Structure formats: C-alpha cells, structure tokens
Protein: Dihydrolipoamide dehydrogenase
Amino acid sequence: MSDEFDVIVIGAGPAGENVAARAVRGGLSAAVVEEDLAGGECSYWACVPSKALLRPVELAADVRRVPGMSTGPLDVAAVLARRDEAVSHLDDAGQVKWIKSVPAEFVRGRGRLSGPLRVEVTAPGGAVRLLTARHAVVLATGSRAALPPIPGLREAAPWTSHEVTVAQEIPKRLVVVGGGVVACEMTQAMHGLGAEETTMLVRGRSLLDRMEPFAGKLLRDSLADGGVDVRFGVEVTKVERSVPGGPVTVHLSEGPPITADELLMATGRRPATGDLGLGTVGLPEKGPVEVDDSMRATGVPEGWLYAVGDVNGRNLLTHMGKYQARVCGDVIAARVRGDRDDLPGLRAVADSLGAPQVVFTDPQVCAVGRTEAAARSAGFDVRVVEYDLASVTGAYLLGEDYRGRAKAVVDERRRVLLGVTFVGAGVAELLHSATIAVTGEVPLDRLWHAVPSFPTVSEIWLRLLEEYGL
Ligand SMILES: Cc1cc2nc3c(=O)[nH]c(=O)nc-3n(C[C@H](O)[C@H](O)[C@H](O)COP(=O)(O)OP(=O)(O)OC[C@H]3O[C@@H](n4cnc5c(N)ncnc54)[C@H](O)[C@@H]3O)c2cc1C
Ligand SMILES: NC(=O)c1ccc[n+]([C@@H]2O[C@H](COP(=O)([O-])OP(=O)(O)OC[C@H]3O[C@@H](n4cnc5c(N)ncnc54)[C@H](O)[C@@H]3O)[C@@H](O)[C@H]2O)c1
Structure:
C-alpha cells in the first residue's frame, strides 16, 4: 500500500469527496482521510435527515391550504423510518464504495498535519500511518455545532443538530435556542412531528437575520400561527438537568424558567480545525482556514495547502462546498500540469456574489446575492422592487390564504440584479432562475423577454419587472 499520493484530502464530507474526484479526473492520484462516516455531516446529521423530517410537515401544510383536501394524522414512526433510510442507517458503505470507484484511496482515521505535505493518520485502533502528498493537501474537515458558555449547559447534555436530526423520539416539550437556519428548520420539523409545546428563544430581534427582514417576519408569523412560542430578546442564563435524559430547566434573562423534555442549541457552528496540526505549518490553530479564490490557504509558503467547504468559513452550505471543491480539484490539477491556473472556471467567484440558499420551512425562504442592506453598504446605486406573491395567480392557485413576498435588489447603474429573495410555498425551485439572473448579470431589459408560464409562481418575475417599470 503506497503512502504517497499527489493529493491528500482530510475529511470525506461533500466537499472532500468532490475535491478528490476532480483531482483524479484531472489525472492525479488522491487519498481521502475520514475519522467518522464518509459522506460527512450533510449526509447523516444535517441536510439529508433534516429535509426528510421537514418534507411531510411541509406537504401537510400545503394540503391543508387546499379546500376539500385533508391529511390524516402524521405517522411519525413512518417519517422517522424514512429518515433513517435516507441516512443509510448511519452506514457509510455506499459512500466508501463511491470514493473507491473514483478511484481514490479511502483511509479511515483521524488526519493531522505534521509539517508541509505530510499528514499523520491515527486509525480507530490507534495505529499511526504517515502519508505524504506530492503536490497538495486539502482540508475539508467541515464544522461542528458551537455551544455558548452558559452555566450548566454542557452538563445538561443538550441536543445540537447532531442529535435532533437523528432523534428516535419527538419530545413533547422542546426549547430551541437560536434564530438561524438550523433553529427555524428544526423547530418547524419537531413541532410538526409532535413537539406540542415548542418555545424558540431568540437572542436578537428577528429570525434569519442575515436575510431580508420580511423573510424572518413571515416565518415568525407562520411558526406563531402554528402554535410555536417565539420569543425575541431573550438570553439563557443557566441550564439545569439533574437526571441525565430527564427534564431540563432553562433559566432566562427575563420571565420565569421553562421546563422541557429537551433543549436544542442551534447557536451556530465553528470550523473543525481543533487538533488539525495547523500550527505545524505556521497557521493559527483555531478559526477558519483563510483561502484565496482558488481555495489555496493564505500564508503557507510554497502554496501546497488548500481548504474547501465549511472549514474555510466562506459559505456554510453543501452546494457551495462542492462548488469550491470542483474549483480546487481542477486548479490543483492545472498547477501540477503546468497549465494556466487563472481561467474563469478556476476561481470560486460565486462565493462573494452571494450564495443561493433555501430554508426548507413553511413558508420556504430562499435568497441569492445581496440583500438591500448589504448592497447599500457595498456602495451600489440601489433600487428595490417588492411584490406580494399572493397576488400572483400561480401562487393563489396553490391554496387559500397564500402568504409570500418577493424582493429584487437592482444595481441601477448597470440595470442588473444584485439579489433576489422569495418567501412563500413552492418557491424553492424558483431560486435557480434568480441565481442565473444574478450570477449571469442578465440585463433587466433582456430578462423582460424570459416569459414565465401562466399560471405558475414564476410569474413573480413578470410582476417584479413590471414594478420596476418595464
Ligand atoms: C441541521 C443542518 C442542516 C443543514 N441543511 C443544509 C441544507 O439543506 N443545504 C445546504 O446546502 N447545507 C445545509 N447544511 C450545511 C451543510 O451540512 C454543510 O455546509 C456541509 O455539510 C459542509 O460540508 P463539508 O464537506 O465542508 O463538511 P462536513 O459535511 O462537516 O464533513 C467534514 C468531514 O470531515 C471529517 N473530519 C473532520 N476532522 C477530521 C480529521 N481531523 N480527520 C479526518 N476526518 C475529519 C468529519 O468527520 C466529516 O465527515 C446544514 C447544516 C446543518 C447543521
Ligand atoms: N437549508 C439550509 O441551507 C441550511 C440548513 C441548516 C443549516 N445551514 C447552514 O448551517 C450554518 C449553521 O446554521 P445555524 O443555524 O447553526 O447558525 P446561524 O449562524 O445561522 O444561526 C445561529 C443563531 O444562534 C444565535 N446565537 C449565537 N450565539 C448565541 C447565544 N450565545 N445565545 C443565544 N443565541 C445565540 C444567533 O443569534 C443566530 O440566531 C448556517 O450558516 C447555515 O447556512 C443551512
């Protein structure tokens, strides 16, 4: 078994797997080191299980809005069984087989840098193997849930995304801390599946505070109408759980404490750089690994270290990590071959344009590019147009009491879109049209000729352009 490869990737999440595949496609050999399950957070404890839990909840809401339609009670056991199937019962045999088919070498164990181009792998049994990279090492170690330093919190062993996504039982009383994407999606999923008393504790004044303000407001209204107690401006001061697995008491900065069956902390992520040996190559031991647009780590002599996915802190999204991975694998191969490494496909420019994101709640929230606030602070000559999605025939036909809104942020100087946000049922699949318009910088006068079909939700495009004055 060789211990020398052209490229060594640490972490077999979606980003790591893809960087290896692209490097091999470019004619290089690659090894992928994974300490847990090949497939990473996304496949087992993040995107896939969360969406499997949300789908029936969302579908039930869609059905309830159609007069004459109803759903029976949700069969929660069946939903959890389908979720278990979606995460391959936490067995990564299929992913390992895929990595080997690339073909890349799969190495099970914990990877750690031990100097330039060297990776020490500690196998589950404790054996240590030293791998050497001829050209590049790529860090793709992802991120972990971050827990704030609240007295009693760690001792109370709260849930994070890692536990809630693979829950085998739905707690009747649930407290969720956080107002970001994980908090919103998992509150919706757990409440829809049977967490009757669900309380959301949000430190700030809004949900999804990196998005357009109306998105958080519409989502808050929907959660509150559905019976979730959403509280803003509340801090958790102390947590108590005297019996492991027993009830948990959450003390607050204002109001009486809440006792619940489970506490979910959805308070952000930190890059998985702990004990990665970054100090051995002159980088800070903690924090995201900073990279340039070719995913090369900055500040490393000879430029042999790269970082893709959550670990570089650019955009914590699977599709963006995979995009960075494609760029990274291709750029490494080009550099090894001595080809030009500055072609347009070899720079991850989409990262800074504003990554597309769908929040799979009811209503769905999706956005790409810059918000109005971000565009203004970047100095663009901004004009915004908004439209009530309920007034679009295609949306109205989806069901009664449709609630949704769209907003486009226009660069007036160039008459192109800087950002688009859609909130409402059935808008997730619309997002890619906005991504193409924003990334392709399609002039509005040209977009006018992209005629949306009647009666689809896509007619929102026509309405937004009419609002703009076309
Ligand atoms: C609940 C939840 C839902 C989400 N839903 C979505 C969604 O719907 N859409 C979306 O785009 N994004 C979603 N995300 C974000 C998405 O999960 C991440 O952006 C994505 O998983 C990042 O991929 P990655 O390959 O960078 O890292 P990861 O998926 O975290 O994979 C990193 C891998 O590296 C391994 N590793 C770490 N350190 C070492 C080491 N020293 N040695 C060996 N192996 C190591 C880990 O075990 C892991 O397998 C969600 C996140 C959460 C928490
Ligand atoms: N559908 C999707 O695309 C999807 C789904 C889930 C997660 N993700 C990605 O995963 C990443 C992590 O999501 P997240 O929701 O964990 O993080 P986040 O950064 O989106 O939200 C963190 C939330 O926790 C709050 N918070 C932080 N510290 C706190 C404290 N001490 N006390 C109380 N509240 C505190 C913040 O105010 C914020 O509301 C995001 O970047 C997101 O893009 C994506």
In short: Residues 148, 177-183, 185, 203-204, 266-269, 316-317, 357-360 surround nicotinamide-adenine-dinucleotide (ligand 2) (CB under 6 Å). Residues 50 and 165 are 6 Å apart (CA to CA). The longest strand covers residues 128-139. The chain has a mean pLDDT of 97.
